[in-house]
Amino acid sequence: MDSGGIQKSLDWLIVLLGNPLLIPLYVGLMTAYITFMINRAQIRIARRKATFDVIINVEKTASYMLLNRRFSELRRSGGIKHICHPDTGTLHEDRTVLIEYLNHYEVVALGIRRKLLDPAVYRKWMGGAFVRDWNAAADFVERERWRLHSNIGRWRYDATTYENFEWLACLWSKDAVRLAKRRRPSQPAFEPDVVAGPDGAASTTG
User: Fold this and answer.
1) How many Cβ atoms sit within 10 Å of the Cβ of residue 51?
2) Tens of pLDDT, residues 108-154
3) pLDDT for 164-181, tens place per residue?
């Protein structure tokens, strides 16, 4: 655009800004913009507060730290996968610990996915451990996803089990295990512990 064109544009802008009929429009647009920016800042603050609440009020509690300690012991010993079909009282207890621990990660991931928690804050706090624990539990989750529907006598793979945990781990690391990319047979090569009844509800056996 030449200098003449630029001057014409500036002249039109001055005319528009000086038009009293358009002042309410300018005020409305400016008010909407300021309100939007304030609301966005408030939402960001609320997400951060909620994330810190999870860290302080959940992950710093004695009960959670016990879960974390037992999960770490199982992870280091390579004893997670076999818990899917426990055959002793100790294994039943460990399976409960494992499920509760993974459920916490699933809830956090769901909160981040639904934009209720701040991903940057939580990633800085637990990002490495989050991916590490997902990889450690991935084979267990794979087994948990199989359901035998007794009313039709057929195995089905339920990919929604811990799907948010998997989604966030894969989002944060290219080294995260991606169960969705694995080739699966029509039925598992093992006997999972969880069976779905006629209504599709899961129950635990063993």
Assistant:
1) 23
2) 999 999 998 999 999 999 989 999 999 999 989 988 888 777 676 77
3) 999 999 999 999 999 977
DSSP string over 19-72: -GGGHHHHHHHHHHHHHHHHHHHHHHHHHHHHHHHHHHHTTTSHHHHHHHHHHH
Residue 172, burial from CB neighbour count under 10 angstroms (0-12, 13-18, 19+): middle
Interatomic CA distance for residues 172 and 131, integer angstroms: 7
CA 110/CA 133 separation, integer angstroms: 16
Task: Map tokens 């400016």 to a residue.
Answer: 30
Confidence tier at 157 by pLDDT (50, 70, 90):
confident
Closest C-alpha to 123, from 55, 61, 75, 69: 55
Q: Is 184 left (phi over 0), alpha (psi -120 to 50) or beta?
A: beta
Q: Residue 1 CB: number of other CB atoms within 10 A?
A: 8
Nearest-Å Rg of the Cα atoms of the chain is: 26
Give the predicted TM-score (pTM) of the model.
0.70
The closest alpha carbon to 43, from 126, 117, 124, belongs to 117
Angstrom distance (rounded) from CA 136 to CA 45 = 33
Q: Measured between alpha carbons, how far is 171 from 131 in angstroms, rounded to an integer?
A: 10
